[in-house]
From TrEMBL:
NAD found in the keyword field: yes
Entry keyword set: NAD, Oxidoreductase
A molecular function GO annotation: hydroxymethylglutaryl-CoA reductase (NADH) activity
Enzyme Commission number, as recorded: 1.1.1.88
Family: Belongs to the HMG-CoA reductase family.
Name of this chain's protein: 3-hydroxy-3-methylglutaryl coenzyme A reductase
Source organism of the structure: Acidisoma cellulosilyticum
């Protein structure tokens, strides 16, 4: 760690412009000129917009956007923008999607666009009766929720359902109200949070208890996106590959240690589109992992089976709370452009494409793992990163990466030696 003489108490920091904040940070930590110049460069997100998105902005970071090709979703070809810093992710989707393109691509569906908000009630001596008292107020609750967002109601969304549960918690029972709201093309966090806050005083009044938390649940299990695809034996390279992949899936289904990595692979595809479209990656990730643990034991989000023709059938089902309005989706110009590339008109269409790509990503990782291993494909691209880290420029990057892969030593020390050798030869 650098010497710790920085004073983090900077008065009025939030009132400065991004340039003033950057200069202040430079002075505060003694940042070198090259770093300041780097952070001061205009990216694809202008600083004015960035400054309105989050607090204390000094710069923005660019992440590569790659296009996944060969993707066919419900009979429609789509080019999918993916924002990721990880090599091999985009290539894996292109390869996996190509292998199921002729057998129909991805078939997708969606359970709906319902989000859940929770209201926590404590301190009632008769929690079971309190639950019933809340359920009795369904019409009133619907009126309050819909009154919060007439625009959403006009668009066909709004309050849909009510659930009240008594949960046993440390310190006594809690009465947890779920309001279930169709948020249409919005992810809906702000929408349902506003409703929960508006409703909370009435819930306290009806029950005599005390309300604490009023916020959405990221376990969006009423907003599930589903994808399915079939890979023929010819397309994947025979029975041995198929059976290896089935065995890899069964490993993930049975073991949380493996399931975590299996699902991380799915999220490589999912989060890349969520990010490229300005949606909330953490919301989708929290939903994915909590859904994967819904039985009480963390398991695979996807399944693989052999169909009657001997082909491999993969499925993915997971919460997909993404929107086309709200959050950064409307504000970030690159997010808007990404949505245009995909040509989606509704949040559900976007969610379904994301599920398809998550399944493609998963297939790619399983196939690599069950055959040549992940490193062969991964390292070829990773070698480019390592080459750049040791200072390769221009066509040196490609040449050095090739040498590292051939030597099967994609390491920085080897890369530095080989770069020196290359330059010596040149
Ligand atoms: P929002 O409130 O900005 O937009 C939603 C509103 O837009 C709706 O309530 C509706 O009035 C209007 N609208 C216009 N056209 C619409 C359409 N076609 N369909 C639906 N609504 C339409 O945003 P939001 O989606 O409610 O909230 C998303 C943001 O909330 C994200 O930035 C997320 O990061 C953030 N957030 C997340 C969490 C969490 O996940 N735990 C918590 C708080 C906030």
């Amino acid at each position: 760690m650098m010497s710790n003489t920085v004073n983090s108490r900077i008065s009025g920091f939030h009132k400065m412009t991004p340039a003033e904040r950057l200069a202040t940070v430079q002075r505060a930590v003694g940042l070198d000129g090259a770093s300041v110049e780097q952070l001061g460069k205009p990216g694809s997100l202008d600083l004015h917009t960035a400054d309105h998105m989050i607090e204390n902005v000094i710069s923005s970071i660019s992440i590569p956007i790659g296009i996944a090709t060969n993707v066919k979703v419900d009979g429609r070809d789509v080019l999918v923008p993916m924002a990721t810093e990880e090599s091999s992710v985009v290539a894996a989707v292109c390869n996996s999607a190509r292998q199921c393109y002729d057998s129909g691509g991805f078939i997708t569906s969606m359970s709906g666009t319902l989000m859940i908000a929770q209201i926590q009630l404590v301190g009632v001596s008769d929690p079971k009766a309190a639950r019933i008292r809340i359920l009795e107020q369904r019409d009133k609750i619907e009126e309050v929720c819909n009154g919060c967002d007439p625009m959403l109601v006009r668009l066909g969304g709004g309050f849909r359902d009510l659930e009240v549960r008594v949960i046993e918690a440390e310190g006594g029972p809690m009465v947890i109200t779920h309001i279930i709201v169709d948020t249409r093309d919005a992810m809906g966090a702000n929408t349902v949070n506003t409703m929960a806050e508006r409703l909370a005083p009435s819930i306290a009044e009806w029950t005599g208890g005390k309300v604490y938390l009023r916020i959405l649940s990221n376990l969006a299990d009423r907003r599930l996106a589903r994808a399915r695809a079939t890979w023929t034996l010819d397309a994947i390279g025979g029975e041995a590959v198929r059976d290896g992949m089935i065995s890899a899936y069964r490993f993930a289904a049975a073991d949380p240690y493996r399931a975590a990595t299996h699902n991380k692979g799915i999220m490589n595809g999912v989060s890349a589109i969520v990010l490229a479209t300005g949606n909330d990656t953490r919301a989708v990730e929290a939903g994915a992992h909590s859904f994967a643990a819904r039985s009480g034991r963390y398991t695979s989000l996807s399944t693989y089976e052999v169909d009657a023709d001997g082909s491999l059938v993969g499925t993915l089902e997971m919460p997909m709370p993404v929107g086309l309005v709200g959050g950064a989706t409307k504000v970030h110009p690159s997010a808007q452009a990404a949505l245009k590339i995909m040509g989606v008109a509704t949040a559900s269409e976007l969610a379904r494409i994301i599920a398809a790509v998550g399944l493609a990503q998963n297939f790619g990782a399983l196939k690599a793992l069950a055959t040549v291993g992940i490193q062969q494909g991964h390292m070829a691209l990773h070698a480019h990163n390592v080459a750049m880290v040791v200072g390769a420029v221009g066509d040196e990057v490609q040449r050095l990466a090739k040498i590292l892969v051939e030597k099967r030593q994609v390491r920085q020390d080897v890369a530095a030696e080989e770069l020196a050798r290359l330059r010596g030869e040149g």
